[in-house]
Amino acid sequence: MTLKNLNGLNFNKLSENQITELEQAAKRARINSLTMIQGANSGHPAGAFSSIEMLLSVYGLANLTPENADSFDRDNIIISHGHVSAGVYAVLAEYGFVDIEDAVKNFRRCKSAFQGHVVREVPGIDWSTGNLGQGLSAGVGYALAQRARNYKGHVYVLTGDGGQTKGQLAEARRVAVNEKLNNITALIDLNEHQICGDINDVMHCNIKALWEADGWYYIECNGHDFNELFDAIKKARELDSPCVIACKTVMGKFGGVMENTSEYHGKATGEKNYYDIIKSLGGDENLLASVNDYRKKNLIPEYHGRLIKPIEPVLEFGERFRYSPDIKTDNRSAFGNVLTQTGELNYKKTNHTPILVFDCDLAPSVMTANFKKSCPDNFIQCGIQEHATATISGAAAAGGTLSLWADFGMFGLDEAYNQHRLNDINNAGNKLVLTHTGLDVGEDGETHQCIDYVGLMRNMFGWKILVPADPNQTDLITRWMLKTPGCMCLAMGRSKVDVIPEFYDEDYKFEYGKAVKLRSGKSGSIFALGYMTQTALKAADKLKAESNIDVSVYCVSCPLEADIEAITEAAETNFIITLEDHHVRTGIAPVIAMAMAENNLHTKFKKLGVSHYGLSGSSQEVRKFMGLTVDGVIENVNELLRK
Amino acid sequence: MTLKNLNGLNFNKLSENQITELEQAAKRARINSLTMIQGANSGHPAGAFSSIEMLLSVYGLANLTPENADSFDRDNIIISHGHVSAGVYAVLAEYGFVDIEDAVKNFRRCKSAFQGHVVREVPGIDWSTGNLGQGLSAGVGYALAQRARNYKGHVYVLTGDGGQTKGQLAEARRVAVNEKLNNITALIDLNEHQICGDINDVMHCNIKALWEADGWYYIECNGHDFNELFDAIKKARELDSPCVIACKTVMGKFGGVMENTSEYHGKATGEKNYYDIIKSLGGDENLLASVNDYRKKNLIPEYHGRLIKPIEPVLEFGERFRYSPDIKTDNRSAFGNVLTQTGELNYKKTNHTPILVFDCDLAPSVMTANFKKSCPDNFIQCGIQEHATATISGAAAAGGTLSLWADFGMFGLDEAYNQHRLNDINNAGNKLVLTHTGLDVGEDGETHQCIDYVGLMRNMFGWKILVPADPNQTDLITRWMLKTPGCMCLAMGRSKVDVIPEFYDEDYKFEYGKAVKLRSGKSGSIFALGYMTQTALKAADKLKAESNIDVSVYCVSCPLEADIEAITEAAETNFIITLEDHHVRTGIAPVIAMAMAENNLHTKFKKLGVSHYGLSGSSQEVRKFMGLTVDGVIENVNELLRK
Q1: What are phi and psi of A621, to 5 degrees?
Q2: Which of residues 154 through 193 in chain A touch B, CB cutoff 8 A?
Q3: Helices and strands in chain A: count of H runs, count of E runs
Q4: Selected residues 32-71 of chain B with any CB under 8 Å from a CB in chain A
Q5: Contacting residues of A for B455, CB less than 8 Å apart
Q6: Which 3 state secondary structure label does DSSP give A636?
Q7: Secondary structure (H, E, C), B569-633
Q8: Which is nearest to B554 in space by CA: B542, B565, B543?
Q9: B426 to chain A: nearest residue by CA?
Q10: B356 bridge partner residues
Q11: Strand B402-408 and strand A328-330: pairing?
Q12: What band does B11 get if pLDDT is binned at 50, 70 and 90?
């Protein structure tokens, strides 16, 4: 049986018949979700039971249906408390998104889409969650994407109450208000229980005062009463500000032993309790046995969920800028020039993908200030709130924009690592631009040195990192990044650098994954990460001029990839040196060492990089004290040749 | 000239003479800090100028002097807006903590203690900051440490206003109130400017309402008026709740062109403006020239700051628990047993280091619930607020306790990476216990799989990671961790595991960095991370029994270290396999590959680990689909032997 979607509030009041249908659906959803959990002997039943009416109401009212779930022009729904997954799957089945039998049988089983925490692979789910506190940020990202695409829809974010204390939630609230969003509604499942007990005992948090202090309109309703829920949602949609609905619920509602206790937050009820509850709900007492039979057979589930692909942007690009070898400029300016040019060419053009640029109070330094001037409506100031910004920019990409956040490396990645991990799991396809990376942050000192961007990104599976060497390569790489789908991170230092003639060449094309050979020599080989290439080149040239030693120099701009061809060739020389202003244990050194080990290649190997927290001084001085200079490289070359 | 410290508010009202002295000191501090910045041609002058009176007042009143700065029993001062460093150093000099000439000449120079953002190496500074939003958490950590040590002192946290939007700040506020702290006062430099302009334009934030909603007492005062500042601080100290003082200030106060603008947030004023300001302040116009002369000489600064060492805990330990090979138990329970035992033995004992245990609503799962029962006053519930908790637990260690935070791997490390990086930079010496790591989280799915803890920690310099294989090793490693100074992370899965007889042995001693050889064979070698050792052992035993193939098995419990002796020995066999339920690119595989490359060792090399986001199912099933089983290992051994 499938409930009818009311599609965007075209109703005045629920009829008695509709209420009866919804109440019956709620009963079925409780029975099905409890059976999922008991069958898996694992899950979160009590929260699922308290959220059922909220879920039925939101999925009933939103313009989100099985038919439009794969398109952009519709409402979005984010389930921030992803652990109530069993309840969500049961409700999605009521509206025809998924097959209830499949969900009940394969909940929390390998290869099934019905994971323990909700994932985007399930139709009707717009954000994979599980780490609390990120859902509202995802909702804000979708709401901004709707606005940028000129789509007049709405975004619903359902959250629990335990996670109301997460700081990221407050950050997202403020961005919503700062952006004057009126297309987002949050609903809190206010059951007053979290794992360790009553939310007021565990960690008191004045929910109403905090939402209101941040400028949200606050409504309360009975979270188990469909009339109150529908009225509240209707009111929220008519407001010209973001609105939060505090839904007063009972933990484990209609779940007998589960009611009003934290005990069944995260575990199955056990069979005795299960049958008591099923009986009280009028459920089929044979259901569980058939599920257990199926699960014992250990069949691999057939339905793995839908395929989530990042957006393929539709954009017009201008001519590349060329920086001649007789000038010095910084890579971040070269990035900014491409961004502004592309922004201007596509700003508010019908059928072009909107480019949204996010900032955390650093626009002048990260070179997005000109984009802001040219494309003011597509520039989103998020303030000093990096956790929310990371997720917002991810969800804005998932919502159909080309979303780009530029920040200092330390704030953009180190501070928001877990948010970017969730973006990756969501295959969101957002772009992250890091400036002031490595030791090249100037005099700000050790807290500001982002010497771990490669080492952090390497822990994920989807992200690509791009570290250009010079402004010409930056220009080409930025264009490539803007047009290529997927999560990508562009990393650049702060200083002006020499132009490398090979990249100034009109014929140079950027090829992802390739280490570019800029000098050729038989004595040894240097692999340099991004903007350390110039140092390697100078060392090679000095070695040639002063000692007639020929070394190869490879520019590595894609540090997550091992260019096996280049490494194989280099392993035939006397040594391989890796050179980077990155943590020496986690940058390109391990990539090359692993490629050598796996391909049984050998030669002398030396890694040069950051071996302790840096000092506070000019980038040049800091590198000098770390031994990452032309003379430092030469010294190491000579030592390896003597060995 | 050195100002007199008023040492803990033993005063009624400032005398006219005192005010005159403070005003003169403020002038000198402005002159000195501006000269630092102009000499370095880099820094944050306008914020330094707006904070000067706040700094002079707090350092004047707190029981923190050059004499007691290296002891625990004193007040603590945290400068959260670490970029106002020039102002801080100038004020510290007024109270005799540092030499003003040294600070002025060597500000922001390599090898000088006077970094761009304040660091603990400078006496009078209790927390190295730079990443905004963490200071209040550090203050709460120190305040909890004072309480646990039974010291009746006070903690002052100075913050800017731009960073008031950081979510972590709100989390820390709530912990302070939840813990009923009355020994902490926050002061906000309310100059209403941040990098991109007026704070209300960049990102509106209702500061008063938010602090009050979280339960703090809120006072306002003129942040340039010593009488008002002293009165406000006195009042704050007398309250029985945490108090925040909003100090209304003028950005760049007394700085001419810098006043009331965001322009000089983060750059020197230039020489012309410099001389105008110095003249108006009555400063020595020759000062800058002498600083410039000195800096041109490029001498290496003599004073590098004090040495910061993590606490050496004074604790009594009980007998080790022994888990016999005929039972199965989980490592996290073995950890919990040692923690409870040690907690009980030392609880509230004079001259013993207090053990503080932090929780984020997961005590029952991370096995700290028994500690809570036995040592209730030393158990700190922080709610679902991981960012604040990470910093609080770090600062509590720096404040003289044995501070331990236990959480799921994903929440304890992935979510709080940057906070742990700051703990490392601070050499705080806190302990982080991660459970449910790797794929061993049960059915919760991909968002909960912490497959990157080694890869994340490897980006820092001080942290040690410990991954025990079985409960007996867990017992010994936990004891070792509790008694050894330094930042340490203990990582464990969720499941019950087999006891490894070698670790049950009474003579087994844990040795940090050593890979323990549990099987010896000439055919090949397997290095297994922690609790994957059992899988490797079973594979080795099956290979021996069924195919008479002898492989060595090494248990790696210290994945950041390469045991060169073991690797050298293994490289003499036909192959090395690494086995881990960790991201295959960032766990032990690269450590061993790098050690092979650097030591010119070779043999066939194969890495087995997590190669894509995991599925949602039982740990066993998830590992099976990832190929990390006994049969998976055997298959790889056979393939390598065939090659």
Answers
A1: -65, -45
A2: 162-163, 165-171, 174-175, 177-178
A3: 25, 20
A4: 40, 42-43
A5: 455, 458-459, 586
A6: helix
A7: HHHCCCEEEEEEEEECCCCHHHHHHHHHHHCCCCCEEEEEEECCCCCCCCHHHHHHHCCCCHHHH
A8: B565
A9: A447
A10: B403
A11: unpaired
A12: low
User: Helix or strand or coil: residue A143?
Assistant: helix
Rg value, chain B, Cα: 28
Query: Cβ B585–A598 below 8 Å, yes or no?
Result: no
Nearest CA in chain B to A462: B612
Dihedral of the CA atoms B621, B626, B631, B636 (nearest 10)?
Answer: 180
**Residue A348 contacts residue A524 (beta carbons within 8 Å):** no
Q: Give the residue from A552, A477, A546 showing the smallest Cα distance to A510.
A: A477
Look at B166 and A385 and tell me if their CB atoms are within 8 Å: yes
Cα-based distances in Å from A252 to A33, A54, A278? 12, 14, 13
Query: What six digits make up the tokens of A57?
Result: 């109401």
Q: What is the average pLDDT value for chain B, to the nearest integer?
A: 96
Answer whether B222's CB lies under 8 Å from B182's CB: no
Give the list of residues 6+ apart from residue B425 with CB closer than 8 angstroms, or none.
A446, A447, A613, B119, B128
| Amino acid at position A609, single letter | G
Q: Is B412 on the interface with A (CB under 8 A)?
A: no
Residues of chain B found within 8 Å of residue A161, distances taken between Cβ atoms: none
The per-residue pLDDT for range A390-426, each reduced to its tens digit, is: 999 999 999 999 999 999 999 999 999 999 999 999 9
Residues 6+ apart with CB under 8 A from B152: B146, B183
Crossing angle for the helix pair A45-61 and A226-238, to the nearest 10 degrees: 50
* Interchain pair A596, B594: CB under 8 A: no
What is the three-state SS of B384-413?
CCHHHHHHHHHHHHHCCCEEEEEEEHHHHH
Amino acid found at A517: K
A594 touches chain B (CB under 8 A): yes
User: What residue type is B250 in one-letter code?
Assistant: V
Q: Which of B165, B177, B452 sits opposite A383 (nearest CB)?
A: B165
- pTM exceeds 0.90: yes
B620 touches chain A (CB under 8 A): no
Q: Could you tell me which residues come within 8 angstroms of residue B62 by beta carbon, excluding any fewer than 6 positions away?
A: B5, B8, B74, B75, B77, B154, B156
Does the distance separating the beta carbons of A621 and B110 come in below 8 Å? yes
- Give the chain B residue whose CA is nearest to the CA of A593: B594
Chain pair A-B, CB pairs under 8 angstroms: 345
Q: How much of chain B is in helix, strand and coil states, percent to nearest 5?
A: 45, 15, 40
Q: What is the pLDDT of residues B48-103, one digit of tens each?
A: 999 999 999 999 999 999 999 999 999 999 999 999 999 999 999 999 999 999 99
Specify the amino acid at residue A393.
Answer: S
Q: State how far the alpha carbon of A355 is from the alpha carbons of A13, A24, A351, in Å.
A: 40, 45, 12
ipTM of the prediction: 0.97
Residue A438, chain B, CB below 8 Å: the answer is: no
